[in-house]
Design a protein that fits this description.
Elements (H helix, E strand, L loop, with lengths): L2 H11 L5 H42 L3 E5 L5 E2 L1 H9 L4 E16 L2 E10 L1 H7 L6 E4 L32 E5 H7 L6 E12 L2 E15 L4 H4 L2 E5 H7 L5 E2 L1 E6 L5 H12 L3 E5 H4 L1 H39 L1 H9 L4 H37 L6 H4 L10 H18 L1 H8 L3 H5 L3
Parallel strand pairs: 4-9, 6-8
Antiparallel strand pairs: 1-11, 1-12, 2-10, 3-4, 3-7, 3-11, 5-8, 6-9, 7-8
C-alpha cells in the first residue's frame, strides 16, 4: 500500500479526540450513498417507463400506417396491399377500417374507436388481439358474405338479406368495465355516420356480441379500442369494400420514418404515411425531459453530501495539524500531504458510492421483479411502476459522485499542504 493511502486509511479508522468529525464523516458516507441510490432508482424508473411505454405502443400498434390524403378511404385496396407487402424492410401488412362509435349496454355507454380487421393479418402487425384475457378472438375470423346477419330492426339499421347470429366484437378491459359488459353479452354499437331521412339524419346502429376482452395494460387501448370483422365494420359504416388504413410492420422500427417514405413513394400520389415515432413524439420527449430534470434535482443530494465531505476534511485538517507538521518535519512533501487528504475524501466517496449502487440496484430489481408499486392506469397509461436499471447509468452516476466529491476535497487538502511545521509545533 502506498504511503499516502496508508495514512488516509488510518485517519478514517483512528479514534478521534473530536467525535463530531467521525459523525460528520459517517453522515457524508450516508449522504453519498443516499444520493447515488436515489439517482439509480429514479433513472431506473424513467428508463422503465420509457421502455414499457415504447414496448406497448410498438407492440399494440403498427410501425407505419398508410392512408389517403384527400379521400374517405382506400378503394381497390387488395392489389395495393399485395404490392406493398413485397417492399424491402416490410415484414407484414394489414388492412383496417377505423371509425368512432358509441358502445352501450343498457343505460351504460362509452365512446370507442372501432377497427374492422382481418385477424390473420392484424396479428402480424399488432399484439392487441393476442392479449385477449377473457373469451377468444377466434370468432373474428372472416365468414362467407352470404352469412351476413341482420341486426335488430330499427331506424337507420344496415340493410342485409340474410339472417344469422349477432356478429362478434372484441373490446378492451377498461371499456368493458365502463359499460358493464362481459363475454357473451350483447352491446349496441351506434355510428354517427347515419342515413339522411325525411325526419333528418338517423344514426346507424348494430348489435354485436362480446366474444373476447383484451388487456394490454395500456389504458389508451384498453379503454377505447374495439375490434370487429372487416366486413361487419364496412356494413356498419355503409362502406362496401373500403378501408381507411393499411398498417405495416417493418424490420427496423427505429427507421420507420425512412421506410414509411419508401412505402409512400411506392403507393403513389395521394397517399401519406405516419409512424409510431411521429404519433408519440411528445410523450417520449416529455419522458426524456423528465429524466434530465430528475437527474439534476437528485444530483443535489450528492452535492450536499460533498459539502459534508468538505466540512469533515476541514475539521480533520484542524485536528491533525500537529500530525501533519510532524510528518513534514520527517521529510514528507507538501504534495504527499495533499494526496493524503485527497485520498481520504475519495475513500469516503467510494464507500458511499458503492453502498448507494448496491442499494439502488437492489431496490430497483425488487421493484421490477415484484411490481409492488401500482399506478392509476387512467393517469399514467400503465398499471404498475416499472424499473429498468442500466449499467451505463451506474457509470454516469458513479462518475458524477466521485467527481463532485473530489472537487470538495481540493480546499481542505490544499490547506493541509500549506501547514508550516515550525508554526504548528511552536507551542508543543
Amino acid at each position: 500500500m502506498r504511503f499516502e493511502l496508508f495514512i488516509a486509511t488510518r485517519y478514517l479508522r483512528a479514534k478521534r479526540r473530536q467525535a463530531v468529525v467521525g459523525v460528520i464523516t459517517a453522515i457524508s458516507v450516508i449522504g453519498v450513498a443516499a444520493g447515488v441510490a436515489s439517482l439509480i432508482i429514479a433513472l431506473a424508473i424513467t428508463n422503465g417507463m420509457q421502455r414499457d411505454l415504447q414496448a406497448r405502443l410498438v407492440g399494440s400498434t403498427a410501425h407505419v400506417e398508410l392512408m389517403r390524403v384527400q379521400a374517405d378511404g382506400i378503394r381497390d385496396w387488395r392489389p395495393l396491399l399485395e404490392k406493398l407487402r413485397k417492399l424491402p424492410h416490410v415484414t407484414a401488412a394489414a388492412p383496417g377500417l377505423y371509425g368512432q362509435v358509441l358502445i352501450s349496454r343498457g343505460a351504460r355507454s362509452g365512446g370507442a374507436l372501432i377497427k374492422g380487421v382481418i385477424p390473420a393479418d392484424e396479428r402480424n402487425v399488432g399484439d392487441l388481439l393476442q392479449s385477449v384475457a377473457e373469451g377468444s378472438a377466434k370468432d373474428l375470423e372472416p365468414v362467407d358474405v352470404t352469412e351476413a346477419h341482420v341486426p335488430k330492426a330499427g331506424p337507420g339499421a344496415p340493410d342485409s338479406a340474410a339472417v344469422q347470429a349477432i356478429p362478434p366484437i372484441v373490446i378492451g378491459k377498461d371499456l368493458a368495465e365502463t359499460i358493464g359488459a362481459g363475454v357473451g353479452d350483447d352491446v349496441l354499437v351506434t355510428s354517427p355516420q347515419g342515413e339522411l331521412t325525411p325526419l333528418g339524419l338517423v344514426p346507424r346502429y348494430q348489435r354485436f356480441q362480446v366474444a373476447g376482452i383484451f388487456k394490454s395494460g395500456f389504458y389508451q387501448y384498453d379503454s377505447s379500442y374495439t375490434f370487429v370483422r372487416l366486413a361487419d365494420a364496412q356494413r356498419l359504416f355503409s362502406e362496401p369494400d373500403l378501408i381507411s388504413v393499411i398498417s405495416f410492420k417493418v424490420d427496423d422500427l427505429y427507421h420507420a420514418d425512412r421506410i414509411g417514405k419508401e412505402i409512400e413513394k411506392a403507393a403513389g400520389q395521394g397517399f401519406e404515411t405516419t409512424n409510431w415515432m411521429e404519433q408519440n413524439r411528445e410523450l417520449f420527449r416529455a419522458l426524456k425531459l423528465e429524466q434530465v430534470v430528475t437527474f439534476i434535482v437528485l444530483a443535489l443530494i450528492v452535492c450536499v453530501a460533498a459539502l459534508n465531505i468538505l466540512i469533515a476534511l476541514t475539521m480533520m485538517v484542524m485536528e491533525k495539524t500537529r500530525d501533519i507538521a510532524v510528518l513534514m518535519s520527517f521529510g514528507v512533501r507538501a504534495e504527499q500531504v495533499r494526496r493524503i487528504f485527497l485520498l481520504q475524501g475519495l475513500l469516503i466517496s467510494v464507500i458511499g458510492t458503492v453502498i448507494g449502487l448496491v442499494l439502488g440496484y437492489g431496490l430497483s430489481w425488487m421493484g421490477g421483479h415484484y411490481r409492488f408499486i401500482h399506478l392509476d392506469a387512467s393517469v399514467y397509461s400503465i398499471d404498475y411502476l416499472p424499473f429498468a436499471p442500466r449499467i451505463w447509468d451506474a457509470v454516469i452516476v458513479a462518475s458524477v459522485s466521485l467527481g463532485v466529491s473530489l472537487l470538495a476535497t481540493l480546499y481542505p487538502s490544499g490547506s493541509a499542504a500549506r501547514v508550516l511545521p515550525a508554526e504548528a509545533l511552536r507551542y508543543e
